[in-house]
Amino acid sequence: MRERSEINKDLELCDQEILKLLKKRFGYVEELTENMKAFDLPVLQPEQDKVGFKKLVSAIGDNPYGEELQSVFQQIETAGKRVKSRNLFDFNIALIGFMGAGKSTVSRYLKHKLAMDEVDVDSVIVKDQNMPIKDIFAQFGEEYFRDCESKAIIKLQSLRQTIISCGGGAVVREENVANLKKTSRIVLLTASPETVLERVKGSDERPILNGNMNVAFIKELMEKRAELYRKAADVMIETDHKSVEQICEELLKALIRLER
Ligand code: S3P
């Protein structure tokens, strides 16, 4: 049987090798990202991700450490996504747009694909106030809610590599837009009033729409806010009849183009 110190030395050597390879791997990720930026290539490669995963599972094969190896590679993949997103953007992505424009769906998808952090301004308010949005509106009124929203946006300024999903009314105060712009690029998601109605009609969580769940009301409020949304946006993406993958690909490409 080998000496303990000798085995420990071998383990250290293994770690050095792993470290060397990981550095190399992250370097390749950066190279890929530079390539993407230079040639305007797709940022999301869902098919490639699937193929890569399948190859890895088959390389692991029937192995006594199969579970551990899969979990390590999952971590490596996540770390690679973070290297990629950091290389693509050194700013936060703030999502704005009317209720039902798809901010939460897009945020969730981007978080998964780019391993960025994700924060929802409404959720910050709910946590700070310890009550649902509709109760805040009912008990204290809209102005109070808007004050909470402005405070939450200020609080989020220190975040990095984060997708900030804003409530639909965040743009009604100019200070919110100015504060978001300090560390984020602002992406406006749009949808037609009909699409919005389809997406929100099953929920009673939006006090502004309760009792007003119809296309005419949505259209009117949307038009009232349209100029504010447009002025705030660095990038604008239409979401009607598109898959979340399509929307995110467009959005990422547009953000990359902004940096050129
Ligand atoms: C609001 C939109 C809601 C929420 C609040 C007010 C608005 O967020 O902040 O009900 O004024 O448009 P979502 O856009 O996420 O639904």
Detail the topology: elements first, then pairings.
Elements: H1 4-39, H2 46-60, H3 66-88, E1 92-96, H4 103-114, E2 117-120, H5 121-129, H6 133-140, H7 142-155, E3 162-165, H8 174-183, E4 184-190, H9 193-200, H10 215-232, E5 235-238, H11 244-258
Parallel strand pairs: 1-3, 1-4, 2-3, 4-5
Helix pairs in contact: 1-3, 4-11, 5-7, 6-7, 7-8, 9-10
The chain binds shikimate-3-phosphate.
Describe this structure in words.
This protein is an alpha/beta fold. Helix content is 65%, strand content 9%. The protein is built from 11 helices and 5 strands; from the N terminus they run αααβαβαααβαβααβα. Strands 2-3-1-4-5 form a 5-stranded parallel beta sheet, with helices on both faces.
Short description:
The protein has 260 residues and is of the alpha/beta class. It has 11 helices and 5 strands.
List keywords for this structure.
single chain; 260 residues; alpha/beta; 11 helices; 5 strands; elongated
Large-scale geometry: elongated
User: Nearest-angstrom radius of gyration?
Assistant: 22 Å
Mean pLDDT: 96
With helices defined by DSSP (H or I, 4 residues minimum), what is the helix count? Answer: 11
Q: Which spans have pLDDT < 50 for at least 5 consecutive residues?
A: none
Strand content: 5-15%
Q: Structural class, from helix and strand content?
A: alpha/beta
How far the N terminus sits from the C terminus, by CA atoms, comes to 61 Å
* Helix and strand run: HHHEHEHHHEHEHHEH
Q: Give the names of the bound compounds.
A: shikimate-3-phosphate
Helix content: 55-70%
- DSSP E strands, number: 5
The largest β sheet comes out as: 5 strands, parallel
Q: What is the spatial order of strands in the main beta sheet?
A: 2-3-1-4-5
